[in-house]
Amino acid sequence: MNPDLNDDVFAALASPVRRALLTLLLDGPRTVNELAAHFDMRRPSVSEHLKVLRDAELVSERRVGRERHYSLEAGPLMELQEWLHPYERFWRERMAGLRDVLEDM
Amino acid sequence: MNPDLNDDVFAALASPVRRALLTLLLDGPRTVNELAAHFDMRRPSVSEHLKVLRDAELVSERRVGRERHYSLEAGPLMELQEWLHPYERFWRERMAGLRDVLEDM
DNA sequence: ATATTAGGTAGGGAGTTTCCTACCTGTCAA
DNA sequence: TTGACAGGTAGGAAACTCCCTACCTAATAT
């Protein structure tokens, strides 16, 4: 049903550091050093986090001279949204329940 | 911004077993034994997965005699959908790009 | 009362994750 | 051409995950 939404994506999103990296990339492509500056962590560790994101195809890299520019790739996140669809009914029901309670007050 | 969407939710979703448990609960509340029957795994392990889901508030439990009925709680998934919002722009852009390529063919 | 059933908890082993330092290659600048 | 800089890779320690078996309590059934 969602053939391309695999474990790797969920595993990649499980780390707060990697989620923060994705958030930083919302503002456009960034080099590894620019990204690393935001973390209390050595650069090689950031490199490894980027590798996990690359393997999950959540980011892409473009080589520019001796720099590497990382960009957000939102495809897997779109599939994640699709994965959520079957659950949507449940939170709508809960919201409806909440609304009813509020109306009774 | 999403104060209630914490690490626990992403970590809970990182396991394929736990995602399968949520999928099973789409059909309504289930006991631990009913859930465990779907996995090639001992029951205590399923219990532990359920504990992780409970801690992330993705499921709730109701005691009925000696059984425990687990139910889906979609609140955190709704927050996950909200977490995705800032990324939506990116996949829309990608889709638009794809459409343009197709139109040129 | 006793046996059985539902299901949680404890402790442990194997595998994985996450960080580190040390080191390497490739590019640019002097 | 030599030095400095960007950033990836290797190897290893500490912590965490995931599964197991053994065991426990509470509730039902006999």
From TrEMBL, chains A, B:
TM region(s), chain numbering: none
This chain belongs to which protein, by name? Answer: DNA-binding transcriptional ArsR family regulator
- Sequence ranges assigned to domain HTH arsR-type in this UniProt record: 1-92
Please indicate if the UniProt record lists DNA-binding as a keyword: yes
Q: Which UniProt keywords apply?
A: DNA-binding
Gene source species: Haloactinopolyspora alba
Taxonomic superkingdom: Bacteria
The Gene Ontology terms for molecular function here are: DNA binding; DNA-binding transcription factor activity
Q: PROSITE patterns, alphabetically?
A: HTH_ARSR_2 (PS50987)
InterPro entries attached here? Answer: ArsR-like_HTH, HTH_ArsR_DNA-bd_dom, WH-like_DNA-bd_sf, WH_DNA-bd_sf
